[in-house]
Specification:
single chain; Jelly Rolls; 7-stranded antiparallel sheet
Length: 743
Amino acid sequence: MHVIKLDGYNATTENGEKLELGTFDSYGEEQLQIVKAPDWGDLSVIATFNPPYKKPVQAVVDSVTGVVKVPKEATADSYGVGTIVFVGLADGVQRISSDVEYIVRKHSNASGTEPAEPTPDLLQQVLTLSKGAQTAAKNAEDVANSVREDADNGKFIGPVGPQGPVGPQGAQGIQGEKGDTGERGPQGEQGVQGVQGEKGDTGAQGPVGETGPVGPKGDTGPQGERGEQGPQGEVGPEGPAGKDGVQIDDAAVSEDAPWSSKHIVDMLCPPLEESGNPVVCYPVAGYPLGVKASWEPVQEGSGTPYPAGGGKNQLNPAEYEAATKTINGITFTRLNTGEVIVNGTATGTAIYVLIKNFSYHISLSTDRNWSIAGENVISAQGLVSGVTVTRPSDNTALYVRVESGTTVKTTVQPQIEKGNTPTAWAPYENIRPIKGRDSVRVERCGENLFNKDGVSVGAPVYGENGTISSYKDVAVAYVKVVPGAQYSIRLRQTDSTILYTRIAFLTKSKKFIKRAYMLITKHGMETEKTFTVSADCEWIQFGLNNGETFNYNFDVVFVAGRAPTTYIPYTGQTNTLTLPETVYEGEVDAVNGEGQVTWKMLTLDGATNKFTQSDNFWRMPSNSAPGVVNGYFTMCSHFPANTFGGNQTGNYIFTRANIMSRYFPDVNALNAYIAAQYAAGTPVQVCYKLKEPVPFTATGAQPLPALVGVNTVLTDADSATVTGRADPIKRITDLEDAVASQT
């Protein structure tokens, strides 16, 4: 028998050589022993044989023995080199191995051989394996009964053999039958009094004697007729505990100590573990699910963080003429990023100066880009008709100009960068504050993902162009989705109003991507829409309104895949877990509330936690970052990731002088910058990884039993991991569907 090992995506022979499966047209003798690594343990395996110059044929690997017989077609008609591919199947899983080559050898003419019967299809093979297991069990039972019957009939009794040596004394046997009475011996000494014998028949009644002492209490007689109820007496003393009922013992097999239903499911149903957000799974109904939510630190904005002047854009907004300026109907507003918001209708030419004393010579390349000879290039994005970034002929200034009569609402992004070719605009400074979590929400629901009771009336809603507003008659709801997946919505209006439903695609951080659809549902109508969300969409925002005053007279079904033909009510449970403190990275168990912190935050103020220079390093005081791990496992709001490192022995963070010297001349300048940022309300934050997780307990945890059929688990954290026991009927159905799809 040939041995093939399955491990990951690899399928290898025991010795690494090619298999030899005999000569062509030979069959019935070759078998393969399949040895599964743990990652194949829960998969049902199908072997696909690709014979030389022939159509492939499939065979099911016995899930108990791991043996598969080589099909007749694998060696039929021709010789050469074929391949075997193994497919592992489970609920939502398909793993295909690499090829295993096999050789079919050549032989001379052997005419007169019988043609082989074709190999049964996969479904018939599965049924045959199941029937074989049942037959083997029945045969074993018949053999056991036959042996027991032969033993009872004495068939195993042979002739008497010679007497063997005396063995050791055995345990006392049971008492034999009573023998005949022997002769009376002499009277012995009086022995101790024996136990009282059974009561004999009642003799004739003698004369009445004197009244003797009170004897022991006799047996209770039959119950008499019920008398009238008397007055209630005082409460008596507590009686003894009653007898225990049948005790469950999951460690033994016994009629007196049966298994619990959970233990039966644990023994018979395969384990289930799925991760993602959302998680879609098919557990055993009623089984207690395990759900853990995890998250990482979240930074606002995008791109690499850096302090003012630390990026490619060298145009300092602090040198613009004013933070805000209104002239000739146009309002200019400066942002810290260097952008300028331009808004209004110009009643005359409006100018906003970016650089007042511009001493560099400028050569015009286009109407929007200029080169500073040999040094830098000037560019501007966000320019529209009537708005330019320009300079006077003497090159003494640089400014934004709006022509008279222009109505404008735009954001101009001016930039000066090194080189001769302009690139995409970047802010002068890119500060990205870091946020953690104070609570985590975990929801378990069925097929319908829309919780109508969870809508919020008057919450901000995105408009068609991404503007966000609040309306007293608009209700807002959010649903977590899988990027790039297909979803369907069915709407039903149950009163005389018209229901307007806005559907917007949002990013992971709920930033606007686009207004996808506007659906209108009139009384008595049902509106249905199936769509695929974009690859960057992780949330859908629903905005619903049906009159001047919002009312709930409508039904919504929102499901993954195609819309159902009938209304499916929402069935769900939401656990909101309140964390004991702000946690920037960690996980929490939604069922028992146990959690752990894996990253912590350090907020710098430039005063109580200053940096000091130590050789080539600028370091914080000892024990200012408790629990920090060695290495550059950090992120920062004002500087690129891994600018700071951790010293585990001294419990502090540090940076290198050669890194910070690109921003600051010395350590004192760094501390001054940190103090200024703290005073401005944008403190420098450093988030660092802990050597060991720190445990905590959250409130709000509750059990989450599995629903019948599909279960969907969502969280407002980054990811959820669901554990339980898989529904075996769903597994079998999926296997049958997979087999059918390959025939």
